[in-house]
Amino acid sequence: MKFLHLLFLSFIFLNTAAMATDYREDALTLDGTKIIRRHYSHIPSTQTTIKQHRLDIDEKQWLLVSADSQEGGKGMWGRSWVSPKGNVFATFGIYVPFDALEKLSDIPILGALATARTLEHFGQKPKLRWINNLLVNDKKIGGVLCGMEQHGSHHFVAYVGIGLNVDMSEEACSKIDQPATSLRCLMPFPPSTEEVLTHLTESIHLYFTKGLHHGSLISIYRNYLAYKGEQVEIFDGKNRFQGVFVDINEDGHLILKTLTEDLVFVTGEISPRF
């Protein structure tokens, strides 16, 4: 999928005397959509905080909540997300009209593809570990966690939470409970979290305004998938299943071929079997 270059990009910094030292607000305008960013030095969770401001989201105005660190970041199954300072912790609140969205399952796909595009911008070759993790060199570098709320009779608000490891040292990555990496580990001169978040914001806007048509999303998503055609294990939150990761269907659901049958998973966690 090719997109036109963004023609209009401007930051508007809003300085007020009442602004606290651990909070700042600015805005980015992209093709007529104003994206208000509320940044905190430390909060419990960007996903929790953004929902307190859901009424600020409309057709012409999205919301982004980011933080230097968070103490209650969540991953799949409610697991805690390691959230030390120096990485990207962000949740986007996005206005999605009913008629612009073909499938609810497109939301996490759009979020994952936008995040992969940002990693590519910084010279990486990411893979997507179905359903919500981003890998570089078979090590986790980030994750995407999405939710939806219906507002009235004509639109949803999509919440797209993204964590990306930017400035984590190899020692810090080694303490995570699975193989992990960061841009600092991968690059001699890694970008700042601000540089990463700026490009991520552009990518999110691009995919959620020009990439909402389902047809080509699945084929693009397939090209990024890790472990396709390989022996894997799927954890669905309760049970574990083993087999060959055959493909995803047109809804983005994973097809697992076991010894006795083909199983379809709407969500889950995949890991390779060696």
TrEMBL record:
<dbReference type="InterPro" id="IPR008988">
    <property type="entry name" value="Transcriptional_repressor_C"/>
</dbReference>
<dbReference type="InterPro" id="IPR004408">
    <property type="entry name" value="Biotin_CoA_COase_ligase"/>
</dbReference>
<keyword id="KW-0436">Ligase</keyword>
<feature type="signal peptide">
    <location>
        <begin position="1"/>
        <end position="20"/>
    </location>
</feature>
<dbReference type="InterPro" id="IPR045864">
    <property type="entry name" value="aa-tRNA-synth_II/BPL/LPL"/>
</dbReference>
<protein>
    <recommendedName>
        <fullName>BPL/LPL catalytic domain-containing protein</fullName>
    </recommendedName>
</protein>
<dbReference type="InterPro" id="IPR004143">
    <property type="entry name" value="BPL_LPL_catalytic"/>
</dbReference>
<feature type="domain" description="BPL/LPL catalytic">
    <location>
        <begin position="28"/>
        <end position="212"/>
    </location>
</feature>
<dbReference type="GO" id="GO:0005737">
    <property type="term" value="C:cytoplasm"/>
</dbReference>
<keyword id="KW-0732">Signal</keyword>
<dbReference type="Pfam" id="PF03099">
    <property type="entry name" value="BPL_LplA_LipB"/>
</dbReference>
<dbReference type="GO" id="GO:0004077">
    <property type="term" value="F:biotin--[biotin carboxyl-carrier protein] ligase activity"/>
</dbReference>
